[in-house]
């Protein structure tokens, strides 16, 4: 079994500790400062140039990213940079739905943002149960079990990213299902439940259950797994789906379905690939959340790459909607504009995060903007009405192949943003980490000499050890995406720095070389294509990463100028109780939340800690230990005059083998 993407870092936490004990033990404990007295909750005023269509009049966190704009922003100000050090745990809840994969049940990956709506906190679990909790105490109000079989049908693990919420504009008194929560399953069923009672909604699809797989009619090699909750826009449910990466040349082609929120009836379907390309390829699906501007009537769709992921000889014609951000008319599904961020994607650089919508002032001009974070570590900034550049985006020459891969074509150029600057330097090989090289007896330096890397977009090869993949396919920026404070016009994003290397094998050679695959690494067949592939993390014999830290950072950007305000390592690599120095940082999964109190909240790191940072300076202000890495975005809500911050600590086996079932909620002490 090959080591997964981040396993090198948890191995480094023990390996380097044994090799260099002096570098260990930097356990960043929570500050033990006195707690301030509680105060009445207030909401910050909205910036003058921020339309009300983007920032709700009332604080809300009723969707995956807090709001449809994906800003992950709360206008609440009870918790501030001055008093956040006094946060205390007010309750926690354990679902019981957890597995480390050691038995018959696959491991769980839990990335469910807690949804606050209807005076209730709603969560979905990786065993596909939906639970409603009292937001002040954590007491269970009701729970619903979908009785989904615990089988990893399309993923190597059981996975859930939570639920969605809808409410009727004009509720009918006494009628059920005027407020609905929705949750999907890996076997492609969407459940609709009355938000008050947890009972299935009989008027939705087949007695409250929609079989989305009925529309899986091309290369149906797997079910259209509903791991990401629907994006709810008015009375529309926007559904994407997840599949099985790297497995097949031909696969189900990417689709987005608009479903009526009340009835489950399909309204329209968006297809990212042409009819011709659908015959030979597949995917280019939307497996993450979407964002929307209801005033413009647009939904913004982050589209992934076509299949197979690392060879494109079967899809030589252009596919302009693949690996793109595409704006669709909410009522019809018609394409209004689209920007492709990777041409002829052969690196699995899916657009993996909902674009963040924001209104920014650049050179004195108010601009309705959209910021698309990418796996490449780029932030593309465009006008969300038209798709036109805010700062120039340039087509620049990129490396061609070395002639070893038959049937492949290469795009001569790729889009590069001029502002903001890339979050990591892809122009050269990352420096070798001297400590890892010394411990490995020069192993890292030798590997660096053997890997082809001519900058960003160096193509896969069959030669030698292969081509360096940097950033790696799991992403310089992951699906947590960009948070935004509209008052200061500051964007916050966490980024991981991981080096992998990819090699293609002709079919017969692949069958001899295949020694299994892990989660986001190892051997994968790309069945039907002439080449299988292998993806490995660059590490020495002890499991230490070969590249120089930091391994992850939190970055703040001034969106007036596109310049970095501050950046700092975030988290610590850790295993068996050893913490690496925080100046080395940690890779992260999951994104930040930002508040009008000037605080950035984030979990996401290997050390399973929850943290708060100053929005203004980046200083760490608070931390606490969770059961497992909190790989879900946090949520911020107010209930009965008190502000709360909620985390789900469920873990992800890509990051480390520590999993959990904890919902944990914090607030300031009462007076």
Walkthrough of the structure:
- There is one protein chain.
- With 671 residues, the protein is mainly beta.
- The chain has a single domain (7-220, 360-667), classed as Methanol Dehydrogenase, Chain A, CATH 2.140.10.
- The protein has five helices and 43 strands.
- The chain has a five-stranded mixed beta sheet with strand order 1-37-38-39-40, with no helix packed on it. The chain has a five-stranded antiparallel beta sheet with strand order 26-29-32-31-30. The chain has a four-stranded antiparallel beta sheet with strand order 2-43-42-41, with no helix packed on it.
- The termini are far apart.
Number of strands: 43
In the residues, how many domains can be counted?
Answer: 1
Residue runs with pLDDT of under 50 for 5 or more positions:
1-41, 46-52
Cα-based radius of gyration, to the nearest Å:
23 Å
- Please give the order of strands in the largest beta sheet: 1-37-38-39-40
Q: Report the sheet-strand fraction.
A: 25-35%
CATH top-level class? Mainly Beta
CATH fold label: Methanol Dehydrogenase, Chain A
- Mean pLDDT value: 91
């Amino acid at each position: 079994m090959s080591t997964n993407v981040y396993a090198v870092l948890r191995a480094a936490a023990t390996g380097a500790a044994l090799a260099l004990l002096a570098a260990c033990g930097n356990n960043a404990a929570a500050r033990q400062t006195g707690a301030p007295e509680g105060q009445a909750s207030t909401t910050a005023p909205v910036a003058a140039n921020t339309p009300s269509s983007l920032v709700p009049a009332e604080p809300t966190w009723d969707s995956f990213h807090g709001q449809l704009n994906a800003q992950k922003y709360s206008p609440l100000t009870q918790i501030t940079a001055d008093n956040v050090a006094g946060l205390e745990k007010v309750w926690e809840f354990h679902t019981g739905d957890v597995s480390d994969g050691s038995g018959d049940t696959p491991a769980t990956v839990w990335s469910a943002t807690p949804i606050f709506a209807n005076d209730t906190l709603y969560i979905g679990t990786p065993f596909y149960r939906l639970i409603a909790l009292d937001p002040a105490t954590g007491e269970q109000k009701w729970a619903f079990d979908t009785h989904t079989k615990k089988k990893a049908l399309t993923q190597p693990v059981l996975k859930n990213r939570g639920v969605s919420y809808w409410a009727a504009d004009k509720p009918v008194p006494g009628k059920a299902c005027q407020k609905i929560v929705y949750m999907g399953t890996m076997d492609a069923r969407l459940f609709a439940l009355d938000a008050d009672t947890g009972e299935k909604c009989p008027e939705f699809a087949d007695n409250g259950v929609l079989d989305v797989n009925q529309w899986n009619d091309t290369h149906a090699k797997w079910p259209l797994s509903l791991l990401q909750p629907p994006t709810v826009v008015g009375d529309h449910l926007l559904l994407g789906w997840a599949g099985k990466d790297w497995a097949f040349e031909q696969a189900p082609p990417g689709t987005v379905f608009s479903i009526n929120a009340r009835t489950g009836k399909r309204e329209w379907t968006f297809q990212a690939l042409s009819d011709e390309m659908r015959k030979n390829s597949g995917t280019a699906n939307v497996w993450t959340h979407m964002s929307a501007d209801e005033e413009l009537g647009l939904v913004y769709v982050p589209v992934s790459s076509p299949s197979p992921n690392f060879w494109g000889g079967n899809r030589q014609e252009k596919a302009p909607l693949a690996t793109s951000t595409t704006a669709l008319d909410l009522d019809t599904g018609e394409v209004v504009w689209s920007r492709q961020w990777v041409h002829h994607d052969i690196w699995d650089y899916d657009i993996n995060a909902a674009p963040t919508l924001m209104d920014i002032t650049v050179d004195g001009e108010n601009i309705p903007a959209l910021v698309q974070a990418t796996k490449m570590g780029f932030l593309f900034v465009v006008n969300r009405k038209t798709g036109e550049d805010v700062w120039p985006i340039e087509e620049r020459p990129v490396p061609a192949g070395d002639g070893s891969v038959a049937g492949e074509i290469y795009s001569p150029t790729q889009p590069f943003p001029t502002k903001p600057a890339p979050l990591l330097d892809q122009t050269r090989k990352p420096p070798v980490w001297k400590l890892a090289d010394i411990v490995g007896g020069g192993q890292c330096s030798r590997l660096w000499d053997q890997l082809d890397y001519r900058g960003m977009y160096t193509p896969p090869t069959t030669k030698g050890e292969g081509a360096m993949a940097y950033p790696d396919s799991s992403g310089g920026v992951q699906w947590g995406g960009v948070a935004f404070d509209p008052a200061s016009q500051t964007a916050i994003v966490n980024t991981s720095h991981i080096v992998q290397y990819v090699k293609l094998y002709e079919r017969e050679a692949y069958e001899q070389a295949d020694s299994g695959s892990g989660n986001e690494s190892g051997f994968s067949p790309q069945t039907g294509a002439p080449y299988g592939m292998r993806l490995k993390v660059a590490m020495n014999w002890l499991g230490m990463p070969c590249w120089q830290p930091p391994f992850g950072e939190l970055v703040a950007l001034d969106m007036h100028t596109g310049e970095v305000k501050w950046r700092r390592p975030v988290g610590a690599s850790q295993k068996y109780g050893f913490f690496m120095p925080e100046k080395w940082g940690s890779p992260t999964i999951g994104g930040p939340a930002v508040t009008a109190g000037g605080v950035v909240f984030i979990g996401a790191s290997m050390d399973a800690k929850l943290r708060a940072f100053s929005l203004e300076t980046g200083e760490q202000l608070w931390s606490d230990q969770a059961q497992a890495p909190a790989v879900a975005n946090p949520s911020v809500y107010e209930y009965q005059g008190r502000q709360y911050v909620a985390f789900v600590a469920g873990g992800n086996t890509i990051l480390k083998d520590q999993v959990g079932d904890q919902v944990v909620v914090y607030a300031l002490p009462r007076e």
